[in-house]
Specification:
Blueprint: E1 2-3, H1 8-21, E2 24-31, H2 40-43, H3 50-61, E3 66-77, E4 82-91, H4 110-118, H5 123-129, H6 136-153, H7 175-193, H8 210-232, H9 235-244, E5 247-250, H10 254-264, H11 272-282, E6 286-288, H12 289-293, H13 307-313, E7 324-326, H14 343-361, E8 385-387, E9 396-398, E10 411-415, H15 422-428, E11 435-441, E12 444-449, H16 454-461, E13 469-472, H17 473-492, E14 500-503, E15 511-514, E16 551-555, E17 558-563, H18 574-586
Parallel strand pairs: 1-4, 2-5, 4-7, 5-6
Antiparallel strand pairs: 2-3, 3-4, 8-9, 10-12, 10-13, 11-12, 14-15, 16-17
Helix pairs in contact: 1-9, 6-8, 13-14
């Protein structure tokens, strides 16, 4: 179903109903750009930590606009052993609905616009018919304005245009204004004495009794509420998704999640840990199919994890294409005609990929099962871990817990003249065999050696070099931490404003972010399972969120968010409960001994990306890569 500003109101009830009855939801977004400065290779450096990647994306990607949002709901029909899907394709644009509403500024990236245009994207539909939206802070401010005006009309406040010292009685007119006032009075007298109707605009004043006044006030209040709901617009859909507590599936979905929270909930926090807490409030269960396809038991069977290729491969053995039909009255999609980069279609095939991989996990049970529920314990290791593109040894960002911290003792930090190219670095390290270069900026890069014992040799050889310098990765981290502490000291001394700002939220998430003066507006195991190639059931982290008591998250004494799991979630049937109990007993678990060194584990088999190398004949570019998302 295509949803624009014209049919949004009429579509809300079917949308809410589809979300409520769904077993899981699949989402996708299309953006006006990806990076406002760095190239994609610089934005997704192979040696980024999760915190560094988040900071980069927050700084360089959030001024773009998410202007098409795809939502596809999937409900399993047990009696017919098939899924029924409902697809929604939303066009979104922050059109101001009144003088008081925000006038949003956003940027576009020419390559992204050109690419979407080549795919037949309808930009006119975005700008002419896009659904407006407000985040929760903007909504709160607008509601306060409405309440203030109502209070003034009802006599509970003093209108801003009336002086508190004003009183009834004659007003002294300054001499320089008397002629003007006299002419106005003459025109009013002439109008009153004339039988002709005025052709000008006029104010009608009616005398009403108390009952009529109340009725008129109620009508005005209802109009204002309708205007407010119109202004909140598409954000109401995201609130419904959040409130449902349903599993939300996406493909390479980190940017989708960040943009969704940034546009429709609150500005993104500066710190990664705060972002994780806000995300858990808004989307308590996420699953990234790109990460799922990159890990065991799928990584050895799938050769290409880009969305279109993944959907094709999951139709072939040992996988099986799922039975999915379009619900009556809704737009159907045909994968044979590929409507890639239409958000609704991409959400649809993301859902298909998830179903195929989930059902494949059922083949490991005894006896095998052809259908695995979206609530199955087999899927828990994949929850809340979002794929990190091109990071060599950290395959995912863990939304619900600590991130992996692999050893990088084989990595060197190299600084050099701006004129250097990739070929110069390969020549410098030619005696050390195969290396991998990850550029940071024009004068620095990480170089990964193939043998650990070569690290100290490389460092020693640079002691007397004049044009370059080599440090170990540990030394690089120490220097970076020292600079961070210095910056914090400056902030504490009053050179920067680093205070938290909170505002009331009307739904599940309270706004909490650290804004400075220069600021702008995976399926994988838990940390305990990081050595087990995702073969262990997730720990009890998720059980914390199924507690019927309201969970509150605090940081530095401030309430960041609170939420309560949605009641009325479809219960698991006895058959499913028995099978899922068996799943918990069958699925291999990580031993306690494997957990001891988890902070130092190097992930070599989970989500590993192939080293990217310089292409023959290309010497002027520092790094060449082809990125599939």
């Amino acid at each position: 179903m295509e949803v624009t500003r014209q049919n949004f109101k009429d579509s809300l009830c079917p949308i809410y109903s589809a979300i409520e009855e769904a077993d899981f939801l699949a989402i996708d977004g299309e953006f006006s750009g990806i990076s406002d400065g760095p190239s994609v290779s610089a934005l997704t450096n192979g040696m980024d930590t999760p915190g560094e990647r988040y900071v980069k994306l927050r700084k360089h990607s959030m001024d773009f606009l998410l202007f098409q949002f795809g939502l596809c709901t999937f409900r399993y029909d047990q009696s017919q052993s098939k899924y029924l899907m409902k697809a929604f394709n939303f066009y979104i644009f922050p059109k101001p609905f009144s003088r008081n509403s925000p006038d949003i500024k956003f940027i576009c990236q020419s390559s992204s616009i050109d690419f979407l245009a080549s795919q037949g994207f309808d930009f006119n539909k975005v700008f002419r018919s896009g659904i407006p939206y407000l985040n929760q802070e903007e909504e709160s401010q607008l509601r306060e304005q409405y309440e203030e005006r109502r209070s003034q009309v009802n006599g509970a406040g003093t209108p801003s245009y009336i002086s508190p010292n004003s009183c009834k009685g004659p007003v002294n007119v300054p001499d320089e204004h008397k002629d003007f006032i006299g002419r106005v009075v003459e025109k009013v007298d002439a109008l009153l004495n004339s039988s002709e109707k005025s052709k000008e605009r006029f104010i009608q004043i009616s005398k009403v009794d108390e009952e009529e006044r109340r009725r008129m006030e109620q009508q005005k209040y209802e109009r204002e509420q309708e205007e407010m709901n119109d202004a909140v617009g598409f954000s109401r859909v995201i609130h419904a998704v959040s409130k449902s507590g349903k599993l939300v599936v996406g493909h390479n979905m980190l940017l989708d999640v960040m943009h969704t929270i940034h546009q429709f909930y609150c500005s993104l926090p500066e710190e990664l840990d705060d972002f994780k807490e806000v995300t858990m409030c808004v989307f308590p269960r996420l699953l990234d199919t790109k990460l799922m396809a990159s890990t065991q038991p799928f990584k050895e069977l799938i050769t290409n994890t880009s969305l279109a290729e993944l959907e094709k491969q999951l139709k072939e053995k040992p996988f099986k294409a799922p039975r999915v039909e379009c619900s009556e009255g809704f737009q159907s999609y045909d994968t044979a005609s590929e409507r890639l980069h239409e958000a609704g279609y991409d959400a649809y095939i993301t859902g298909l990929c998830f179903i195929s991989m989930a059902n494949y996990l059922g083949s490991f049970l005894t006896p095998p099962r052809s259908h695995i529920s979206a609530r199955s314990k087999l899927l828990e290791p994949f929850y809340n871990k979002l794929f990190l593109m091109r990071v060599i040894d950290i395959p995912y960002l863990n939304i619900s817990g600590p991130d992996l911290q692999p050893k990088r003792d084989h990595v060197l930090y190299v600084t050099f003249p701006k004129e250097w190219k990739t070929s110069d670095l390969y020549q410098l390290f030619s005696a050390f065999g195969n290396i991998q270069v990850s550029w940071l900026d024009d004068t620095s890069a990480f170089v990964s050696l193939s043998q650990l014992e070569q690290v100290q040799i490389a460092v020693n050889t640079s002691q007397y070099a004049e044009s370059y310098r080599i440090q170990t990765y540990a030394e690089y981290l120490q220097a970076k931490q020292k600079n961070t502490n210095i910056n914090r000291k400056w902030a504490e001394d009053g050179w920067a404003d680093a205070s938290y700002k909170s505002a009331g939220m009307t739904s599940t998430c309270s706004r909490a972010h650290n804004r400075s003066l220069t600021g702008k507006r995976s399926l994988s195991p838990t940390q305990e399972d990081q050595n087990s190639d995702f073969t262990g059931i997730a720990d009890s982290n998720w059980s914390n969120y199924s507690n019927p008591e309201t969970k509150k998250i605090k940081r530095d004494g401030m309430l960041l968010c609170s939420f309560r799991p949605v009641e009325g979630t479809p219960s698991t049937s006895p058959t499913e409960a028995e099978a899922e109990s068996q799943e918990a007993d069958t699925w291999p678990k990580t031993s306690a001994n494997e957990n001891k060194g988890r902070q130092e584990a190097v992930v070599s088999t989970v989500g590993r990306t192939q080293p990217y190398r310089s292409f023959p004949g290309i010497s002027e570019r520092k790094e060449t890569s082809v990125v599939f998302i």
